Amino acid sequence: MKPRVLLIEDELFILDLYRHILSTHDFEVITAESGQAATETINKNLEEGEKINLIILDIVLPDTNGVDILKQLKSNQATKDIPVVLLTNLRQENIIQQSFKDGAAGYILKSQITPQEIIEYIKTLIAKEEKAV
Amino acid sequence: MPEPLPTPKLFDFFQKLFPKKTTLPNPEVEQLKVSLAQSELQKNQLLSSLYNMTNPFIVVDLSRNVLFANHAAEQLLNLPLNFMYGKPISQMLKIYDTLTEVTDLFYCPINTEEAGGKIFTKNSLKVISSSKKESFVNLTSQEIKGDPKLNVGCVLTLIDATRETQLEKMKMDFVSMAAHELRTPLTSMKGYVSVLIEEGNDKLSEDQKMFLRRISISTEQLLGLVENLLNVTRIERGTMALAREQIDLQSIAKQLVMDIGARAKEKNIKLEYCDPTGAPQVIPFIKADKVKITEVAGNLINNAINYTPTGGTVKVCVERKEGDIIFHVTDTGVGINPDAQKHLFTKFYRVINKLGQNSKGTGLGLYISKAIIEMHHGKIWVESEPGRGSTFSFSLPVSDNK
Question: What ipTM is given for this predicted complex?
């Protein structure tokens, strides 16, 4: 079965780009463009018993920020084991360090990474997660 | 802080400080009275001139207590002279350089080793008055070396720079905002171009592939520029943070030599790592920001390649010298004349080289490098002779584990 990735990103061009890269590499992609939409999507998937293998989360969102969503996900029993990768343009060490403390599995600097690297990075994280389970 | 007292009339105050002598009983008394009146007049003329000078002016004695402050200084600090008189300067004048407090040991040099007296000068320092009002000043302090009986330690002259500082801040805010806004579309361009290059491999002609690579390179250059502008705003606002970890500068240098090797080869330049003493040295780990130090080292190597003609050599060395780890890049390039060397590390400065070409880049790389190295309590410098090449070096203290 294809691994399912939830992509939370409000910039349409970036959202489409990542959706394209992931789906051409055999991932099933679901998307949300705001914090509110992300929460609804996650709840719906949980209710329907659909597994989410990984979440890619943008830090700057219109209604909230990725750091707060990360904290919520990690404090919820049902979602705390889903690996979360932060997608950011902010090269701010303190935010990055703090999000690792808050349980992020990794982060992607949008402007510094190629599509191939993204895929490899995500595959490694999912493989690590499956090993742990 | 107690309520400031109302300012008394200036001369009343000085009369208390320097009370009049009683009349002498001998016959020369009239002559002495005249001299005394004259010197009194001269003293008051001087004090009145200083007191009414437009720029804030403070005199500190050898025990770091306030001896004199003029009206402009009283207004700046919102404290009258008779309150400040005899009190420690450290309690009267609070100065900040961006976010860190500058202590009076720095801004008020007294009893230093320097023969002619030390001078401290710094621009855009923040001063907070007793009523919590913030102003920005350019400060020049001159240590006074003279007869200790005079008891004058240091003279501080301040120039109000609040407006300039505000304008500079607005400029930085604008650059920062513009750079952030540019980064989003550039990131998306870079991403889509990479997808096209990857997926178009067997569908596109060689020319088309080359065009895509050129779009990609140009996008990278723009992103690099935007990143540099953001770094400048972070440096100027004092918001650049370091993520320190144990790093091995020697492996970083060797890795960079490998990574940049291909570019050097394209230009037919020999890029190599060398041990400066001939024999490999054990270089201890130091606590530093790996990403930023790698950027600085990479920037110096790339510059060396840019300014070295085809067929030249660029050598990279790391050595330990006393308490420092030193990184050097030596090239056989065009060299830099002594006049230009002075300005190399300032913002937006670019050398026009002998080959008649305008140099590449924005003139921000060395400025950012200097700021990063100084944040690590290190030093960065250049030694160069026109026509013979240059050596750029930076040192990082081994013991700096702060």
Answer: 0.84
